[in-house]
Write a structure and sequence with these properties.
5 helices; Arc Repressor Mutant, subunit A; mainly alpha; two-stranded antiparallel sheet; elongated
Length: 118
């Protein structure tokens, strides 16, 4: 009977995260954000399905990103909440700056008046 000999050391790898200019976390050299992967994951997608959605990512990078999230849930959830608040603030600023309030209604009214004039 032969005994299995444990390797002297396992190679440990970290997730392929990089910070972008806007303060978001991107996966590897891609433009895919951690936010996007985790949104799909929280919506019930498997890592394999996420790999189909984001074909520029390797399955290993997706599993690594999800594993990091599961091991650091509090920190990542805090990051996601901060990103969500930033996007809401930006949406409000753009809505005010470009007068997007009631834009849909104004466009419908314009469209209907064009239809009536035909």
């Amino acid at each position: 009977m032969s005994l299995m000999v444990a390797p002297e050391k396992f190679q440990s790898t970290s997730p392929p995260f990089r910070w972008d200019e806007a303060g978001g976390i991107r996966i590897g050299l891609s433009r895919v954000t951690l936010d996007s992967i985790l949104t799909s994951y929280h919506n019930g997608s498997t890592p394999e399905e996420i790999a189909i959605q984001f074909s520029v990512l390797s399955l290993e990078d997706i599993y690594s990103s999800i594993a990091y999230y599961l091991n650091h849930r509090q920190e990542v959830d805090s990051y996601l909440e901060q990103r969500n608040q930033q996007s809401q603030q930006l949406r409000q600023q753009l809505t005010q700056k470009h007068n997007l309030v009631d834009l849909r209604q104004r466009l419908l009214t314009r469209y209907q008046s064009k239809e009536e004039s035909r």
